[in-house]
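Encode chain A's predicted structure.
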Amino acid sequence: MILKLYDKDNDPGVLQHIVDVLNEGKLIIFPTDTLYAIGCHALKERSIETICRLKGIDPRKQRLSIICYDLSTISEYARVDNHIFKLMKRNLPGPFTFVLNANSRLPKIFRNRKEVGIRMPNNPIISEIARLLGAPILTASLPIAEGKEKEKEYTTDPELIDEQFGKIVNITIDGGIGGTEPSTIVNCTSGEPEIVRQGKGILVE
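Encoded structure for chain A:
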């Protein structure tokens, strides 16, 4: 199912339907301020395991990332000192993934690596869904469709994305044509922030 949403004035019933789907442990595809992403309710471990299987990733070896609605929510799921909090406040919402030490509120699957990527995309659609859900949303890049690796429209055009992945998710959110540049990853687990992947975001320190 593909649902068209806008930056504002969306039908509350449609938004609630998406929230209900997430609460049921099902998967969605959604726009961010960088790439389209696949995700689920980040506190439902079986749903996370499903996404890991779809992407062929081992959560013991690869970091998982979540979308939080606001800065105060981040401290519920990760350990943040004052210095890093101020850094995030200067740069979020925006096209960044801040890697932090996870705390015990996240499911066991996150604690394999003891860290979590934190995203607060500058995208009103997914931000509003996270607010209504009242919980973080697991976010991951789309599984690369075989033979489509070099055809960017299959990762930017929501109708083509739904054509590729509609059978493995319950909802594809059409928020317009997506971007092609990933987020900038900033590792903050050792105290001093370190850019480990330069993407769309230019860090303000």
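The mean pLDDT is 94.
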